[in-house]
């Protein structure tokens, strides 16, 4: 992703079955060839652990004002 000014971030979601229990995202960084996201997130899992998993989504936009 090198077309002009691009930014990216990662969205981390704690899922229970197909429902998001908690969602957090990294800070927005410049999207180069190898962007680095050096952050940690802490989640409290629900008491019932069946069907609980994490999803990671990488979002890229042409600038910080794009959606």
- Average per-residue pLDDT, rounded, comes to 81
Number of helices: 0
Give the topology string: H per helix, E per strand.
EEEE
Could you tell me the strand content as a percent range? 35-45%
From the N-terminal CA to the C-terminal CA, the straight-line distance is 16 Å
Describe the structure.
By secondary structure, this protein is an all-beta fold. The protein is built from no helices and 4 strands. It has strands at 7-16, 19-25, 29-30, 52-61. Strands 1, 2, 3 and 4 form a 4-stranded antiparallel sheet that branches. The chain is elongated. The two termini are 16 Å apart. The model has no long low-confidence stretch (mean pLDDT 81).
Question: What is the gist of this entry?
Answer:
By secondary structure, the chain is mainly beta. It has no helices and 4 strands. Strands 1, 2, 3 and 4 form a 4-stranded antiparallel beta sheet that branches.
Topology record:
Elements: E1 7-16, E2 19-25, E3 29-30, E4 52-61
Antiparallel strand pairs: 1-2, 1-3, 1-4
Note the main attributes of this structure.
67 residues, mainly beta, 0% helix
């Amino acid at each position: 992703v090198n077309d002009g000014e691009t930014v990216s971030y990662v969205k981390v979601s704690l899922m229970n079955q197909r429902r998001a229990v908690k969602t957090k995202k990294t800070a927005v960084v410049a999207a180069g060839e190898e962007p680095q996201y050096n952050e940690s997130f802490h989640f409290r899992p629900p008491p019932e652990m069946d069907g609980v998993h994490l999803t990671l989504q990488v979002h890229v936009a042409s600038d910080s004002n794009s959606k």
